[in-house]
């Protein structure tokens, strides 16, 4: 008596995962804390988007991946990873929300430092030295200073090598307060205050 073989079923792991689902999970894990969007998964695995959608739903139900939303859309992360700062919006965000109190506090420190130095102009490097014990980078301090420029609290100027800029290289970017008292006691106006 001859025995007939059954047609082979789609290959799956011992947990009932199809090969496509395992491939998708592996791709998501490879992205660590940055995770991957559906588009990135489709492009990175060459699996059709409909199957990617089905697999991500299955993986979420199995608690193998989680979903994190940000301005760039939904990202899927393996549960063993925490979302990286870039995914959460950067250093200035906590749990996806802008940390306004931290930003305002750093802005105050920068303004006080410029006032304490009693210089007409201050470079980024001088202000950065105030934060060298903190975990802030030079670029993050630059972002705070740029924010103060937009708030019209300080002004960004380039050194011309003379008078108040004599200690600086020509063309070096520096900052000065707007509308604060100068050393002579007279209030300085902003750059456009004299324009009618």
From TrEMBL:
Pfam families: RNA_pol_Rpc34 (PF05158)
UniProt key word Transcription: yes
Compartment(s): Nucleus
Keywords (A to Z) from UniProt: Nucleus, Transcription
Top-rank taxon, per record: Eukaryota
Chief place where the protein resides: nucleus
Record InterPro entries: RNA_pol_Rpc34, RNA_pol_Rpc34-like, WH-like_DNA-bd_sf
Signal peptide: none
Family membership: Belongs to the eukaryotic RPC34/RPC39 RNA polymerase subunit family.
PANTHER family: RNA POLYMERASE III DNA DIRECTED , 39KD SUBUNIT-RELATED
Protein name (database record): DNA-directed RNA polymerase III subunit RPC6
């Amino acid at each position: 008596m001859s025995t007939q073989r059954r047609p082979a079923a789609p290959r799956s792991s011992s947990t009932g995962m199809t090969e496509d689902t395992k491939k998708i999970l592996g791709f998501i894990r490879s992205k660590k804390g940055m995770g991957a969007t559906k588009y990135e998964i489709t492009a990175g695995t060459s699996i059709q988007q409909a199957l990617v959608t089905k697999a991500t739903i299955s993986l979420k139900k199995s608690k193998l991946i989680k979903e994190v939303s940000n301005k760039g859309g939904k990202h899927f992360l393996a549960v063993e990873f925490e979302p990286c700062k870039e995914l959460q919006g950067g250093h200035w965000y906590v749990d996806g929300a802008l940390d306004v109190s931290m930003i305002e506090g750093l802005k105050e420190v920068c303004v006080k430092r410029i006032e304490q130095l009693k210089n007409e102009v201050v470079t980024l490097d001088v202000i950065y030295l105030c934060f060298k014990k903190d975990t802030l980078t030079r670029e993050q301090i630059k972002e705070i200073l740029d924010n103060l420029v937009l708030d019209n609290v300080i002004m960004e100027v380039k050194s011309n090598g003379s008078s108040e800029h004599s200690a600086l290289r020509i063309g070096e970017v520096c900052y000065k307060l707007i509308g604060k008292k100068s050393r002579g006691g007279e209030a300085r106006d902003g750059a456009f205050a004299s324009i009618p």
